[in-house]
Amino acid sequence: MDLGRRIAEARHARGLSLRALAARAGLAPSTVKRIEDGTRDATVDVAERLLAALGLALAVRPAGPEVPSLEELAARLAGPAAASLAGVREQVLALEPPARRAWIATPFDPAGLPAERRATLAALVESIANATPGALRPPWIRSAPSPPSPPRNVANPGPNPPNPRRNRNISG
């Protein structure tokens, strides 16, 4: 994913207009627009100014395995044998906080997932957001249903508590 697209996604996730971001970064709105569109490359100085205006920082990290995107995780969950998300939380938490915030803020539409699997993915993302300083919960999590509760047996709620009057043969 290129820098311009990441900046646009972070701007949208924070509810900032293009003009507001440009003003915060001290740039012309047309410059920000061209960077987001990918028609202009940002210098390191301009990239740092834009990221700082978004509350993010430019970081250099060693190359390593890519963290799966939300779309990839949704595809795993949507398969016939729903794959486990074990290890994904640790993989994402291994990223630096700015990279985690960007991963959490990635626009995602879970509409195609069944409710139970959407709730599973929402719980994963929410737990990562809770462990990431400055991360906001994505809007799609608010619309995800809660994971189903185990069924309760209403007909037989459990043993009755002992009746002290019955034990002493007292009626009443």
- Helix fraction, binned, reads 40-55%
**Termini Cα gap:** 77 Å
Low-confidence stretches: none
Q: Which shape, going by the Cα principal axes? A: elongated
Domain count: the total is: 2
Radius of gyration: 24 Å
Structural class by sheet pairing and helices = mainly alpha
Mean pLDDT over the residues: 79
Q: Give the number of DSSP strands.
A: 0
Series of secondary-structure elements, N-terminal to C-terminal: HHHHHHHHHH
Number of helices: 10
| Beta-strand content | under 5%
Largest sheet features: none
Short note summarizing the structure:
The protein has 172 residues and is mostly helical. The protein has helices spanning 3-13, 18-25, 29-37, 44-53, 70-78, 88-93, 97-105, 115-130, 139-142, 164-167. The chain is 50% helix and 0% strand.
